[in-house]
DNA sequence: ACTTTTTACTTGCAAATCACAAGTAAAATG
DNA sequence: CATTTTACTTGTGATTTGCAAGTAAAAAGT
């Protein structure tokens, strides 16, 4: 009788090229991961329930799985809520906030080429002021400012 | 006996928010689509077999499926090879080449935060010269120039 | 104190998607 | 005209997903 070790078929087993794009997609190349990052980044979401009710219709088992994988890959970190021990708070790490440029370009592409719910005016302002938008996203992250960024359009208010 | 129409569960059926990021991820939010776009964009791949042998290990049924979906969503277009009727040639559309900024940011993120096979020097040059790199990618696309872009580093040669 | 509610999950299951191997049709090559 | 090449398709089992339901711990209500 032979024993065959249970050949685990985790996604990390697949042979991949060393290309950074390939490695990145191994981490967040799915339908949900970047939506969670987006919600953390620009909507100020911090709790499990926020993501669950984000309007994207993610199932709770998938959400829990993605939060765990994003934490494992160092994109976000969790901590218990000091004010309510039932809750866990999710925050982007530096590695996570560094996804802002990629997310912004994906946003601009989608708004440019697909019918989306985003007002064209807002998008073209964001596309024109990429650096300012990214600076504001980073500022909010550093200050732990959960205010959604959407009212902030196309340049710092004077 | 009641007949229930077979409720098709295509991914397009899922309820989604109108966010451009969400709609974009519905189109290319998987492990393979952006790798195909990358190969068309910077490696000059044109044929089925090129993608198959790209080193990422994509199965032929998945490759065929992704090429079809990318064509359906207008990111690439196919035509028979004028010189060999067995072949079909795949090319990016304008919509496809417009993914270049997103792809570049994903590349920079991956190279910055993960152990990849990309030399750091090359990546930092690309990150510093984003606009020049993107201009060169677009130039090659317009000229139908399939030369891989990798030897071209960090700025136009003088 | 105790019942109810909230929160962040886990579990079970059917359906969809995936990876892998093999097969096929059409066209080119020898 | 037999062989090879190309771009796929098909079959099969494994993995992942979507959906509904359940659960444990903590908070809130009475």
Describe the structure.
2 copies of one chain form a homodimer. The first copy, chain A, has 158 residues and is mainly alpha-helical. The first copy, chain A, has one domain (20-142): Winged helix-like DNA-binding domain superfamily/Winged helix DNA-binding domain (Arc Repressor Mutant, subunit A). In chain A, 49% of the residues lie in helices and 9% in strands. Chain A has helices spanning 20-28, 33-42, 48-52, 60-72, 94-97, 100-113, 120-128, 130-142; strands at 76-81, 84-92. In chain A, strands 1-2 form a two-stranded antiparallel ribbon. In chain A, helix 6 (100-113) crosses helix 7 (120-128). The termini of chain A are far apart. In chain A, 34% of the residues are buried. At the A-B interface, helix 1, helix 2 and helix 6 of A face helix 1, helix 2 and helix 6 of B. Chain B binds a DNA duplex (30 and 30 nucleotides) through helix 3, helix 4 and strand 2.
* Number of discrete domains of chain A: 1
Structural Rg of chain A: 18 Å
What is the beta-strand fraction of chain A?
5-15%
Order of helices and strands of chain A: HHHHEEHHHH
Q: What CATH first level of chain A would be assigned?
A: Mainly Alpha
Question: Architecture of chain A in CATH?
Answer: Orthogonal Bundle
Helix content estimate of chain A: 40-55%
Query: CATH H-level name of chain A... which superfamily?
Result: Winged helix-like DNA-binding domain superfamily/Winged helix DNA-binding domain
* Strand line-up of the largest beta sheet of chain A: 1-2
What is the total tally of β strands of chain A? 2
Largest sheet of chain A: 2 strands, antiparallel
Note the gap between the termini of chain A.
77 Å
The averaged pLDDT of chain A comes out at 89
Unreliable spans of chain A are 1-11
